Amino acid sequence: MSKRPPFFEKIRRKAASRWEQLEKDRELAAPWHQLFRQVQSPRHVLSELLQNADDVGATEATVWIEDGTFVFEHNGEDFTEEQFESLCRFGYSNKRHLHTIGFRGVGFKSTFSLGDRVEVYTPTLSIYFDRSRFTEPHWSDTGTRSDGKTCIRVVVSDDNRLRELAKNLQDWQQSPLSLLFFRHIRRLRVQDAEIYWTSAGTGPVPESEWMVLRQDSHQRYLLIRSKAEPFPTEVLEEIQEERMLVEKEEVVHFPPCKVEIVLGTSGRLYVVLPTGVETELPFACN
Question: Could you report the per-residue pLDDT of 104-121, keeping only the tens digit for each?
Answer without folding.
Answer: 356 788 898 899 999 999
